[in-house]
Amino acid sequence: MKRLRACLGAAAAVTLAAAGTTALVAGNASGATAALSNRWYAAAPYLMPLDNDPPDPSAIMDATGLKAFQLAFVLAPNGGGCAPTWGGTAPVSSDTAVQSMINTIRGKGGDVSVSIGGYGGTKLGQACADPAATAAAYQQVIAKYGLHAIDFDLEEPEYENTAAIHNEIGAAKILQQNNPGLYVSVTTAGTADGTGWFGKQMLLEAKSQGFTPNNFSIMPFDGGFNGAASQTSALTNFNAILQSTFGWDQATAYAHEGFSGMNGRSDTGEIFTQADFQTVLDYATSHNMDRFTFWSLNRDRQCSPPDNGGRTSGTCSSVAQSDWDFAKDSVKFAGVTPPTPTPTPTPTPTPGSCKPAWNASTAYTGGDEVSYDQHDWKAKWWTQNEVPGASQWGPWQDEGAC
Questions:
Q1: What does the alpha-carbon distance between residue 118 and residue 158 come to, in Å, rounded to a whole number?
Q2: Pairing relation of β-strands 183-189 and 85-86?
Q3: How far apart are CA 93 and CA 138, in angstroms?
């Protein structure tokens, strides 16, 4: 899955080197902002900060109200070793470029989560000796950036490696225990049945270790999907898998379930439009799901020139759109965009109790009040046997329905 989540190339390494002398640095967790609500971390779209023509997060925040970003991906070094890097090439320990982007986002009241793994590259779960060593590597990332949220993106080829998944799930549990309040999501491949054999084995590994993240998210794309209906069907099926695996009822399973989509044209040529995203968003909110995100903000803009879905790009969606159309769905999920209010009708006044009924034989003086024909009336002067309302210029003043 997510074949466009490429490792950082030489160009990105040059970018890092150039940025190293000028970027702002916020040394560690002590400089971090207060955590956003979990809803924001659950709605954070993926963004590659060093590759695929990274967009300016500040511009996205100004245009949409988006507050949280899912930065991708932390991997083991391409040359080997159990140390965190961006894309296998840029050590987290000496990073300044990503830190500068995080500073910008936090300076505008937002925050970030960091995603580890993705499609391709060597994962720390593969390179580190055991769960403790894997967790220690990820703890460096949490400390470096003062993180309040982290995403374990467990997919090909790592999730086919039993030992690597044992390390990753074990590390996630350790990080959850050692960082109170840390928002932890686990993202894996989606299939029409919910998730495949390896995804189910990952869930069983989590169950065996007694680990429950904030959510398990599936990626219903690159698997023969065809629009939103096939995606919501997969989410329904995945909910049943969560129920049977963990013994949860349906509502509890939805509260631990997430969606991670691909905006526009997928790697295999599937097309997911803004309307598809809205349909899935409606499903997620109506079922009280925990997460709604997508791959990626780098792609949340129209290709130039427009290609009408003819190719899959890491830097544009290949569907007709305005910039950040898909990000706006994340904003809706997080709650900053309220639903269009339903106009409140003007209430009809509730009539009061009526005055004594008018009597033709009674003589009334100015100021006397009576009721007639479900209205109250006040006498303007002395009157007798003159029907209230019979004449516009008569002795009775209409005081409204009763």
A1: 9
A2: unpaired
A3: 11
Measuring CA to CA, how many Å separate 205 from each of 173, 263, 306?
11, 30, 44
The whole-angstrom separation of Cα 293 and Cα 331 is 10
pLDDT at 205 over 60: yes
* Cα–Cα distance, 188 to 216 (Å, whole number): 8
How many angstroms separate the first and last alpha carbons of the chain? 70
| Residues catalogued as catalytic | 155
How far out from the chain centre does Cα 274 lie?
15
Distance separating alpha carbons of residues 246 and 207, to the nearest angstrom: 7
**Cβ of 378: how many Cβ atoms within 10 Å?**
17
Backbone angles phi, psi at 79, to 5 degrees: -85, 0
Average pLDDT over residues 51-67: 97
Give 352-374 pLDDT, tens digit per residue.
689 999 888 888 777 889 888 88
- Interacting residues of 88 by C-beta distance below 8 A, sequence separation 6+: 7, 8, 75, 76, 77, 78, 121, 122
Beta bridge partners, 185, equal 151, 215
Say how far apart CA 308 and CA 310 lie, in whole Å: 6
The string of pLDDT tens digits covering residues 262-281 is: 999 999 999 999 999 999 99
Q: Is the pLDDT of residue 332 over 50?
A: yes
Element of type H or E holding 372: strand 369-372
CA angle 150, 154, 160 (to 5 degrees): 155
Question: In whole angstroms, what is the distance from residue 316 CA to residue 265 CA?
Answer: 9
